[in-house]
Amino acid sequence: MRIDYPTSSVITNPAAGQTLLLDHVKKEVTTIPLPAAVPPQLAAQLKAPGMPGAPAPPAAPAMSVKDLGKRLIEGHEVAGMQFTTPPLTPPKPPGAPQAAIPGMPGAPQLPPKPEPKAMVSEVWTSTSLHVPILSRITGSFGQQICHCKNAVGGEPPASAFQIPADYKPAGLPAAPAMPAAPKAPAMPKFPSKG
Q1: What is the C-alpha separation between 2 and 12, in angstroms, rounded?
Q2: Which of 14, 68, 122, 165 is the most exposed place for a label (fewest CB within 10 A)?
Q3: What would you measure as the largest C-alpha separation in the chain, in angstroms?
Q4: Residue range 107-149, pLDDT digits in tens
Q5: d(Cα 135, Cα 83) in Å, to the nearest integer?
C-alpha cells in the first residue's frame, strides 16, 4: 500500500515485513520493520499463569445504518451509506473534597460542558474501484471531509512501490546513550599493624 503526502510517501509491504518512509525534500528513505503479529492461539499460550487478563473493552454503542443510494461524484458511480453513532456518555469525574477551611473562599464553579452530539459518518464508495470517493464525518468536534479527486482504476505500476534510485538511506534515529553508572567510592585504607 502506498499513501502520498505533499512532501513524503509511506509504502507498507507486509510481505517484506517493512514500512518505507520516503522524504521527497531530503531524498531519503527510512526503513521501519513491521512487528510480527502473534496468532490468537499463541497469544493464549503466552499468558503468564496467575496474571489477570486484560480488561474487556467497553461495549460499543448501537449504531444505525442508512443506505443513501447511488449517484455520480467526480465522474464515478458511488454508493452511499450513512452511519450514526449515538453520543458517548463520558464517565463522571470524582467529586471534589468537601472539607471547608474557615476563612477560605469556596472553589469556583466549572463552566458547563457542551452536550455530546451524535457522530454521523457519510461514506460514498466507488462501485467499480471499491474505494471511498467522498467521506464526511460530523460530530461535536465539527466536520471532517475527505475527497478523492483523481482516482484511476487499474493496477498501479510496480515502480510506485520501489525506492527511487537517487534516495539515500536515512536510518532510524539513534537511541540515546545510557548514562554511565557512577563509580564506587574508594575503599578506606586500614592502618597497618606494625
Answers
A1: 6
A2: 165
A3: 106
A4: 677 777 767 788 999 999 999 888 889 999 998 888 999 988 7
A5: 11
Structural element, H or E, at residue 67: strand 64-73
| The model's pTM | 0.48
Instruction: Read off the amino acid at residue 21.
Output: L
Residue 22 exposed, middle or buried by CB count within 10 Å (0-12, 13-18, 19+): buried
d(CA 104, CA 43): 56
Q: What Å distances lie between residue 184 and 128, 178, 181, 187, 188, CA to CA?
A: 72, 18, 9, 9, 12
Cell numbers at residue 4, please?
502520498
Q: What is the mean pLDDT of residues 13-36?
A: 90
CA distance 42 to 158: 35
Q: What is the pLDDT of residues 45-67, one digit of tens each?
A: 555 555 566 666 666 668 899 99
Contact between residue 65 and residue 83 where contact means Cβ atoms under 8 Å apart: yes
